[in-house]
Structures are given as C-alpha cells and as structure tokens.
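Why does residue order matter? Because the sequence determines the fold. Keep that principle in mind as you read this record.
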Amino acid sequence: MKNSAHELRLLEQRLELELYQRILARNNFRDFLPYIRDGYQMQWFHALIADELQRVYQREITRLMLFVPPQHGKSEISTRSYPAWVLGKDPDRKIVVASYSATLASSFNRDIQRRMDDEPYYRLFPATRLNATNVVTVAKGVALRNSEIFEVVGRRGFVKTVGVGGSLTGTPVDDGIIDDPIKDRQDAQSLTIRENLWNWYTDVFETRLHNHSAQVLIQTRWHEDDLGGRLLARDGILSPENPTGWRVVSFPALRTEDINDFDPRPLGQALWPERHSQAKIEKIRDENPVTFNSLYQQDPKPSLEALVFGDWKECDEFPADCEVIFNGMDFGYTNDPTALIRIGKMGRRLYLDELLYETGLTNPDIAQRFEALRIPRHQETYADSAEPKSIEELRRGTILPGGTRLPGLMVLPTTKGPDSISAGINKLKEFEVYVTRRSRNLLRERNNYQWIMMGGVATNTPIDAFNHGIDAVRGAVFTKYFRPPRTLRGADNS
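Structure:
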C-alpha cells in the first residue's frame, strides 16, 4: 500500500507539472518552444527573440527587425514555431510568411503544419485544428491545406506562404513575416534584385497590411541597401519621438561595443560558442572581413574596391567660411528624384550638403523649393544640360497660381561631351570630399555607387544607378573647374 500511495503521489506530481507546463506554454511563447520540440536547446538569445515576438503578438510593438547570424536558430523560432503559437492563441489570425523563394516559403509552410499536427500542440490548443487531408481546390465549408496555404478548420485564420515576387492579391494580413528576403551575396550585390525586392515589398506586401497589422523582418544583413537597410532609412528606429519606427534587435556573432539593454556578453565573446566556436568566428573575421561584417556582425560595409567614391568622408556641418559656394542639380520627375546639392570649396576640399531629394517635382515646384530654402537668386546652380527647356524656365522666373511671381534663378547647363562621366569622376577625385551627416540620400548613394566588376576587379565604368545626387555634384564640379588642355599657337593639330 505504501508503494501504491507513493506511486500515486508521483503520478499526481507529474500531472501537476504537465498542467503547469501547459499553462506556461499557452501563455508564453518562450515556454511553447521546448514544450512542442522535445530536446530543444534554448539559448539566452533564443529566449529574448521569443519575448520580442510575444510583444508583437500582444501589439506592444508592430514593427520588429531581428538581425541574426546564419545557422543560429532564428527561423526555427520566428518562422516555423511562432505562426503555430499565434494560431493556437487566436485561430482567426491571418498570417503571411515570405522568403526569397517560393520553395523555401513552402518548406516553412510544411514545418508549421507538422508542429500543429503533433500531439503536444493538440494538448495545448485542441480548438485549433487543420484539415486531416491535403486540400488544394476551394470548396464551400472545406478548409484548404496545401504547401502554399492552410486554413484553421471552422475559423477565419490561415497561414499563406509566398516567395518574394509572388502575389498576395485578395489576402488581408494581420501578421506579416519576412524571413531572409535575399538569397546570397550575389543577389545582394545586384541593384536589379534589390530594386525588385523593394518594389514587391511596397507594391504587394505592404499594401495588404491594415491599421492593426504587425510586421516581422528576420534576416542576416547582406548589404547596406538590403530590405532592412532601406526600411530603416525610410522609417527610422522605434523611439518615443518616432513611434512608427522599427524595433531592432541585432545579435553580432562577436559582441561589439554598442550599448543595448539585452546583450549580456562581454566584449568580443561569441554568440553561441557551443555551436559556432570563438575560433571559427574569428577565422572568418580574419579571412573574409566583408562576409564577417555583414553576415556575422549585422554591420554590412561596402567593398571599398567596388565603390567609386569610397574615400568620401562625413562631417557634422557645412562650413560657413567656404571660398566658393554653388549648387548642383539633377532633374527628376515621376520615379527619379530631383536632387539639389550645395557645394562648398575650401582649398582642395569640397563640402557637400543635400538640400533637396524629392520625386514628382515640376519646374514651378523646384522654384518654390529654392525660395523656401532661401538660396540666393544669383548663386550658381549647374543643372543637367539635357534639360534645356527646364533650365530656361527656371532662369526666366515662375508665376504661381494667384499671380505671385518668383524671380529667375542663376541656373546654368553642365558641360557634357565624350567620356564626360569618367572625366567628371576623375575631376571629383582631385578633391578631398566631405558630406554632411544629414545628407542621408547622398550618403546612401556614396555607399552604393559602384564600378562594374569583372572577375572581382573594378572596371573604369560605373553602374548607372544610385547616382542622382552624385550626378548633380559631378556635373557641377566638372563644369565649374574643368580646364581644357592648352595648345600652343601655331601648333599642328592635325
């Protein structure tokens, strides 16, 4: 009888522990992970990621970026497990998961389904069930279940997975998760692929969100101009002054000096030494600094060999005592911005300050911007000579609706000719160039304006992109300071 009583007590304790673990797993995403994945080895940063995702579920934050080195378990938490937990808590949630390819997105879809089919999940969320069979075709009253979308039986919730570039027409999104939108470095270096990704995000993904939607972006950083970089440039970081910005949680493979409230490691320590040793990470740092900085430290830096103006420096302010001040302007309109850059010369130094970088501007709009910026009417502004009509209109002055007349501006055409782009680049390289820190778009161009590379070697031809502000500067400086070679009188020039 004593043994029976003891065994009964042990059974009661096990049942109490099981019930307690279920309560924790239902209410806390960090406890859900080990409950449904037997043997799951949670690290301190895994628990932190889980807590950040729970804040997203509770809408304490609605924009979250997670920057994590490769093979550190980020997708297991955010993409394979989080949607399952969310649908258990709220079977009516509409979730979209996107990745760089439809194939990878479909594999995430299947992994989520497997977790929801397992017995531990059923013990936690018996009301959240999937169709027992594969269902591809829409039929009344029948929940879909396939590798692209699965629906919760009897509820409105679903998970739809899609590759970047795929359609989301007709799909409302409560929770949007983008996991690794760029495949590899080759894709990251492609301006076309980065542009296509951005266009898909703004034209497809973002248009499916509503006022109460939340977004999660999980990635390793490949490039300054990757999706995370562009979103931070556009939206900024979450703060009391910027409540619509992004909450950024970044885990460098080796702890850096940056100050944050979540990383307890001492300086230089590896993130997960049991899986990726200190020696391994340091070897990558020493042998391939570009890969180390981007993929492992989440701090992508451009290749100095590929950058046209990699030696341009930043400065806090535009000097007030420049010897000469003039402007460079590149016309835009619908898709391309009109860029206006103030240029100051002091000896062999040039100082650049972005005054205007805006799309959709007409010539009267430009004249009004000059007026608002208080640019002196007689200050020289060099503009693209391919737009003689616009230059002439700005020189003549502008009459606004209502009769107000804005005086003409000293707008001059740039000098163009054979190899003028190369000549303009070479002229700029004669100077030590400084860019004000507030010139956000011009700095972004500096970090992306690159030579065409052949076999890892830079050619003398730049890629014709990320150059609206740079073109404005190049044309103005070349036109103002280029001096053609002098020829001797009477020399035979035949």
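The longest strand covers residues 209-219.
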